[in-house]
Design goal:
oxidoreductase activity, acting on the CH-OH group of donors, NAD or NADP as acceptor, 7 strands, SDR_enzymes, binds NADP nicotinamide-adenine-dinucleotide phosphate, single chain, alpha/beta, 7-stranded parallel sheet, NAD-binding protein, SDR_fam, Rossmann fold, 12% strand
Length: 270
């Protein structure tokens, strides 16, 4: 009876993980959301679910007490253990009005400090605090696996090769997260705990239709394909999640600390 806790499940890839994992009645899914009041589509999904194997719990990953309370609640429901932690929640590129800027385009130095701090707090420190809160449960789980959601824009090598210099705060926060995973993997390797940084692909989670998503991603796809002609382009949430679940099942201790694509390729390549 594998158990999964996923952060940021109100929409996008996180909600996709809940849909896919809860389809197997043997799984128990802990769907963590920042705020019940903005998680309407998830709550509706859970209400109509045939297996009743999803528990929705509030967890704001930018708030340490909220994370600790969520881990405590999961522990009470699971008998103190968890198989897989999926650190999915993040402040995304478009969740901030200045998220798309390059390093020289901010209106003031203060806004750089403000924005970078916010991205770092949510996307780097958030998963760090979440991992710390859930390690005691993972230790008692069978699978002992944890992934964080990363991005090629957190790879200095890919950024340099592709020349995409926007999304600076987001990208730096994810690069920090990649290193946090390497450090955490080293710390817990002897105990058999596996921590991996996974790139989900370019996934169509922009609010709006499939066409609107294609339009948004088009200039970036063109730029990436100048350097990496075989770049796959935007994919559906379902495809990304299916591949990542398969990856999670294949991960071994030899993978711990790696930064990889959802098919297992090195993350420092496209
Ligand atoms: N989509 C892509 O192409 C892509 C590519 C590379 C990496 N990723 C990574 O994959 C993950 C999921 O991406 P996505 O596109 O599905 O994102 P998304 O559609 O923007 O959804 C982000 C999720 O994170 C939640 N969240 C934001 N701040 C939070 C906080 N402080 N506490 C708890 N939850 C919070 C949001 O909750 P609310 O609804 O309450 O705001 C939402 O559920 C992210 O880590 C992202 O960086 C995505």
């Amino acid at each position: 009876m594998p158990s999964y806790a996923i952060t940021g499940t109100s929409r996008g890839i996180g909600f996709g993980f809940v849909r896919a994992l809860s389809a197997d009645a043997n799984n128990t899914v802990f769907a963590l959301v920042r705020d019940f009041s903005t998680a309407g589509q998830l709550l509706d999904f859970v209400k109509g679910h045939p297996h009743k194997n999803i528990h929705v719990i509030e967890a704001d990953i930018a708030d340490i007490n909220s994370i600790k309370d969520a881990a405590q609640r999961v522990s009470e429901l699971s008998g103190g253990k968890l198989d897989v932690l999926i650190n999915n929640a993040a402040l995304n590129l478009l969740d901030h009005e200045r998220g798309h800027l390059t390093i020289d385009a901010f209106p003031s130095e203060e806004t750089i400090d403000e924005d970078f701090t916010l991205y770092f707090k949510t996307n780097t420190l958030g998963p760090i605090h979440t991992m710390n809160a859930f390690v005691p449960l993972l230790r008692r789980g069978e699978m002992k696996k944890c992934i964080v959601m990363s991005t090629t824009s957190g790879s200095p090598k890919v950024v340099l090769q592709s020349g995409i210099s926007q999304f600076i705060g987001y990208s730096i926060s994810k690069a920090g997260l990649n290193l946090a995973i390497a450090k955490t993997a080293g710390r817990f390797k002897d105990e058999g705990l596996i921590f991996v940084s996974v790139i989900p692909g370019m996934v169509k989670t922009i609010p709006g239709s499939d066409e609107e998503n294609e339009k948004f991603f088009k200039p970036f796809v063109a730029k990436i394909r100048e350097v990496y002609p075989h770049f796959e382009g935007p994919i559906t949430i379902e495809r990304s999640v299916e591949d990542m679940i398969s990856l999670i099942n294949r991960l071994t201790i030899a993978d711990s600390g790696k930064f990889i694509h959802r098919d297992g390729r090195d993350g420092d390549s496209e």
